[in-house]
Amino acid sequence: MDQIFESHFGGNSSNSNGGETDGYCPKCRADTSHIILESYGDEVRRVQCAVCGDIHAFKKPRGAEDDAEPVSVT
After folding, report:
1. E strands along 14-62, which residues?
2. pLDDT tens string 8-57
């Protein structure tokens, strides 16, 4: 039965519901660990903050901004 469940629902990957991920919590106003409540494919949709318990839409961690431009000091 476990093989059927894993093949149908994608197994026990780290991005599955119940897994953990880092994200920005608007209530804590910080990057914290979150429990994944809802995901679709590889996209995480709803999470619960492991620190304060707030449930909200997933937001990428603010400290990991890949689009940020380097700042030059003159």
Report:
1. 20-25, 30-40, 43-49, 55-57
2. 555 444 457 889 999 999 999 999 999 999 999 889 999 999 999 999 99
- pTM of the complete model beyond 0.85: no
Tokens matching residue 9: 């629902």
Q: Where are the alpha helices (DSSP H) in 1-74?
A: 2-9
Sheet holding 30-40, edge to edge: 20-25, 30-40, 43-49, 55-57
> Could you tell me the maximum CA-CA distance found in the chain, to the nearest angstrom?
64
Inter-residue contact 8 to 39 (CB < 8 Å): no
